[in-house]
Each structure stands twice: as structure tokens, then as C-alpha cells.
Amino acid sequence: MANAAGCLAEGRAAAQEGDLVVDFSQVREADSAALALLFDWQRVAAAAGHDLRVGGLPPGLESLAALYGVAELLPRDEAAVST
């Protein structure tokens, strides 16, 4: 993820403003940096009293989350998946 630093700040701001749904349905590949961003945003959202949900995770990211034993920590919102 070439622009993780920019995504970090943008996601943190959004997570502080209200509930956040992150839709990955248009993302073909993502690495462990994406997981780190999601968990950071989740912490920021929780600290602000908001929820973060994710949808449409690419298979590779699903596999990484399972490999790291954190898949169940990602709250899902399958309604976020574009059709």
C-alpha cells in the first residue's frame, strides 16, 4: 500500500466523526498494511464511541487476517459490498 500514511490520517478523521463503513469491494489486492490501518481506525472509532465495519474484503486480505488469527476481530458489513 503505497499511500498508507495518507490513508491513516484520513481514516482516523472519519472514524472520529461517526460510524465508519470501509468498503473493499473495488480493491483487488491488499497487504498487512491494510489490516494495520483497519485496526487503527477501529481503535480510534471505539475511543470516540463509534463503530467501524468492513465489507468486500479481497480474498488475500481475508487469508492474511485468518493466518494472523484476527479475522474474527474485523466487524463485517456485507451490505457495504457493491454489486
TrEMBL record:
Q: Ranges for the STAS domain?
A: 1-83
Instruction: Spell out the coiled coil positions from the record.
Output: none
Pfam families, per this entry?
STAS_2
**Name of this chain's protein:** NTP-binding protein
Q: Which organism is it from?
A: Pseudazoarcus pumilus
